[in-house]
Specification:
Number of helices: 8
Order of helices and strands: HHHHHHHEEHEE
Largest sheet: 4 strands, antiparallel
CATH architecture of the largest domain: Alpha-Beta Complex
CATH class of the largest domain: Alpha Beta
Number of domains: 2
CATH superfamily of the largest domain: H-NOX domain
């Protein structure tokens, strides 16, 4: 997993819960990196799981809810760091339906060894989208947070239903209807 995911996560934890909580979750985790991350480095997904688990224990917030908030936060990172990427889209449906064909292509230019989830478009209209999410990492709520902020970016709203297709959440169907 790319380091930017870790650095931004720890920034969010510090912003929302304080530096002492950042220190606690790093100290309580058995991290091969020692909790020292660079945005371009590559780190084990197990480190993220440990950090999330300890944050959940300290805050009483479910991991899926933490990932949702983190996904929403990460969208602001994309807006700030890569505004040109978002500027080419006219609608949230257009943007979300191009994750595989454009957005992930651009991410791989910056982070060639990034392990990204896949999104397969099952149905698409001007106001709806059905997408299949596959990943060895069950971070679908992170994706949901990004989707929520995508609609907000375009000053519109949507109903997004997340349907787990397997128990561990590595395969999820997103049913998206623009309001």
């Amino acid at each position: 997993m790319k380091g930017i995911v870790f650095t931004e996560f720890l920034d969010l934890v510090e912003e929302k819960f304080g530096l002492d909580v950042v220190d606690k979750i790093i100290t309580e985790s058995n991290l091969e990196s020692g909790g020292v991350y660079t945005s371009v480095g590559t780190y084990s997904f197990s480190e993220m799981l440990q950090l999330l688990q300890h944050l959940s224990e300290h805050t009483g917030i479910a991991i899926d809810d933490l990932l949702l908030v983190y996904g929403e936060h990460f969208f602001s990172v994309i807006e700030t760091s890569y505004p040109g990427l978002l500027a080419i889209y006219q609608s949230p449906i257009e943007m979300l339906s191009s994750i595989e064909s454009h957005i992930h292509v651009e991410v791989r230019k910056i982070y060639p060894d990034a392990e990204l989830p896949t999104f397969k478009i099952l149905e698409k209209t001007d106001s709806s989208l059905v997408m299949l999410y596959n990943s060895s990492r069950a971070m679908h709520h992170f994706g949901l947070g990004l989707m929520n902020k995508t609609f907000e970016h375009f000053n519109t709203t949507a109903t997004i239903v997340l349907e787990k297709l397997n128990k561990d959440g590595t395969e999820v169907k997103f049913l998206i209807n623009k309001k």
